[in-house]
Amino acid sequence: MQFRVDVANRAHDAITLKRIDLQSIGEGAYNLPPISKPFNLAVNPGAGQSVDLWGPVYINAPTIVGPNGPVTLRVTVHYDTSAGPTQSVVVQQVHPFGQ
Fold first, then answer.
1. 75, β-bridge pairs
2. How far apart are CA 69 and CA 26, in angstroms?
């Protein structure tokens, strides 16, 4: 399945996106095992970038909505800043029809 992650730089200095880790947590329409993708993408202050990741998903308990039901994802974004490496963690429920 394809996932898109939007990265926004709200800092006053450029950041460099280094890696994104993604996995599903809890029960949902499907299970996404942990995936990790390296990057070396500069994001200027006040700017944003979108990146795509692909990962295998497994439907443990088929339902009428199939893989179109909601899933809770944990996204860990690793990046370098002028102060050193850091990360942001976001937990969000997603589904193909938006929020």
1. 22, 90
2. 13
Share of the chain above pLDDT 90, in %: 75
Phi/psi of residue 67, nearest 5 degrees: -80, 5
Contact 73, 24 (CB under 8 A): yes
Coil, strand, or helix at residue 24? Answer: strand
- pLDDT mean over 7-28: 95
Q: How many CB atoms lie within 10 A of CB 33?
A: 11
The predicted model scores a pTM of 0.87
Phi, psi of 24 (to 5 degrees): -85, 155
Q: For the chain, what is the radius of gyration of the CA atoms?
A: 15
